[in-house]
Amino acid sequence: MERLTPANNAVPFFPPAMKMRADDVLLVLHRNCLDLTQVVSEWVEWRPGLTIADILDARWPEGMLIEDGLDLLFLASGRLLSFEEAERYIVRPGDGISVALVPGDGGGGGSNTIAAVAMMAVMLAAPAVGGMLALGFENAIGAYGLVSTLSVGTMTGLGTAAVALVGAVGVNAFIPSAKPSLGQGLGQNPMDNSPTYGFSAQANPMEPGRPVPVLQGEKRNLTPTKLTQHLSTSGDRRLWNGLFLISEGPVDEIFDVRIDGNKAGNYEGLEIDIRLGTEGQDVLPWFNDAITERTEGVTVKLSTEWHEVVLDGTGVRKLGFGVQCASGLGYANDKGGLDPVTVQVQFQHRLYGETAWVNLGTVSISGAKRAAIMRYYEFEVAEGRHEVRYRHPVAPPTGDRYISDTWLEYTHEIVPDDFRLPHCALLAIRALPTDKLNGSAPKVTCSARRMTAMLPDGQGGAVSRDIGNMAWAALELITNTRWGAGEPVESIDVPSFAEAAEWCEIKGLKGSMYWDTQCTLETALGYLGQFGRFIVDRVGTKIVCISDRPVALPDAAFLATSADILQGTLGLEYPNSDDLADGCEITWFDPERGKQVVFAPGDFFNAVVDRPPTVAQITLYPCNSDEGAQRAGEYINRCNRYLSRRVDLTLLWRALGPHIRRGSVIQVAADRLMATQSGVVLSATETTVKLSRPVQLEPGTAYEVRLAHVDVAGDVEGVEKVEVRPLAPVAESTLTDTLTLAAPWEQVPSPGCSAAVGEVQRVTRWYRVRSLSRSSDMRVTLKALEYDEAVYADEGVAPQTDSAANLPAVVGLVATIIDANEDLVSKKLISLAWRGTALEWRVFARRLGAEADEWAYLGKTPYPSFLARNIEVGHMYRFAVSHTGSVADGLTVDVDYQLNTPSGAIRPVTVIENGVEVPLYALVNGEPQQVMGVF
Length: 935
Prior knowledge:
The strands form 15 sheets. Strands 31-37-44-45-36-32 form a 6-stranded mixed β-sheet. It is mainly β and about 950 residues long. The longest helix has 23 residues, at about 115-135. Helix content is about 15%, strand content about 40%.
């Protein structure tokens, strides 16, 4: 078996060419992770039970020592392994094992040397391991040859993408790193770079460094990654051929292929082949050769002189030449027609470094037409790198009547092989006529679906789950060992994901995701959770999915009284109403039309009078229905309406443990907030309880005591039992530390229990924990948001609001005379205020009565208010507000603006006639005017 040495290992790294068996394992050993040339690689025969230790025992280079300060870094098929995982890893057929020597932890100066070097080692391993991870290790050298049609760098990039997606997750699992809020950088959204979800239409990506896409659910009009493309010639037609990577496979179906927006069936003679990404999928017949097309330095007008070109490809066993007579061939005869003309082209080659040229053959091209004539010739050659040359062996006829100019247009370097590309869903397009294109490579889109995945059932087995459900999609991201985080099932709380999935089903939160841009696991789970209304968090040693859904028994939740809260740590905050959105704009992705926006106004959106309404903009990438977007908008509006209180508090040891975590509902009975009276139980009987402090009870008021047992578990696992009991009424004002119950305890409280006394149904308020932190002195600090079941009542229907065209532009116009001090001068101003729906309003004024004049334009404003200045006193005025330039389209209000007019709101004066309140009118200079008063 051939062993490569650092001296003959080229950069970028390629696996050794000889793979003896389909199950062979590729070993890549990095002697120095900072030096690309220090790499040893070889194929190792696979056998059942083979371990990494077995391979290293047999293949470790003689004399190579692990010096002090160095550690070993292990990757298996692109997945980063800890030392313990590497010890027990069982090698699979076709695996790629990469081992790198890296500096040990440390470095000082606040730098994390191992983090930087470990990631560097992952990137170094990418060309060897990442590419084969993406291509399934089947015929690895062939796979590199195939994508080298783009360039060597492109294939390296594709491999790097595979490792970057998996490896980064593995590195972050044990090396702390700063995680920006959106995964790539502060303020950056990785989906902005997505060819499918990005803001502007993009061509099929093919640049280095892109990840292997992953599909969850059904995604229409996705933009797949282009692996390779080349031209071919059939007769006088030039044809375009392309191979596209749809997704990690297998997928259920690939359908609705479109080329530049047109259905593929509209192109005559076009052939399409699809592979769903199974492990043993058939060879693609049209791309069973790796073809590198070259035009630079090749294209030349032929003459009788040789034109020599040195080609780059190695391992080439076929050479192809595209020849074109761009203007046609022929001789213009005296009858106005064309007679045939024949030209000859001779091709020769030699292996790079040799001196003797070998003749490939001489071809003849004949024709009698003025349209382009194209021919393609292919020759088998000895394997290796080649130099080629070509010419006219006989000078073609020339003259004014001859058309004989001939060009060598391109060359093909061909490596024959059979490429299966297992685990890759593929789309192949062949024989697309270039005259049907717009002069550039076409943009290809298609639709695909992968609706289920085998996921852990929490009982040691696996079950098929619908990954259109956001919670199951999140679980797949976490557990998948090929492209996800690869978390072991033992560290996942599967029932919590089942609860979140159930809520997604109840609320109809179904969608899809096409992950075609690199982002962190944290960011990906954030996209799914934002639409599915859950968060994924690590609680102790378990990864837990916390669904934002109603709690079954909030009255049984953890109870925190003033006896539990450390003095001086309780804080209550009400958000400023200006900081809350009055409505939300939801961006979602229609299966056919792409990016769409739906507006969901809040209940009081049109009631805002003193400022422009605030609109929150939210993008739900997995959402693919208008109903889902409307439901999300209604849910967000309900949260803004009902969840107003935020509380911060610090508790002692009772809050330690997994029973309180992000998303937990707690009960807070704080005396300062709820007018309760709290204490600690000193003793109790079946019908009495004695507290550590006296309680004031008043006659005629119904009281209750709410108590948390310290030694009895409740119906909610892990939470102390909470009991609520009514107190016996008192006949007079009473101050006592011993309370008598109207009903006996279920369990007599033990000393040390916390209790709170207050009016019935006014003892506690519910909060949902947003964050918590634990300190070494057994203190737990909680930040919580008010919990109200009303936010979960959204029914997913569009809010019942009129369209903007039917809403009034101006309503409720009111004038107010105010006293103001401007520039040290006291003055009166007329303030106008109204409500309505318009982008801006125009304000007009005119005098009434004997001195009536025309309407005067005062100004415009985007806000529903206006201050009228420099208005002459001593006259009656009529003000108008309109959303157009016409006063008739708005509302008016009259103001009697006299020098002694008091400040206040000017409103119509009304009288009662026959028991009905009606406006009062009076004649002023013969003109009826509504009587206004200052109130």
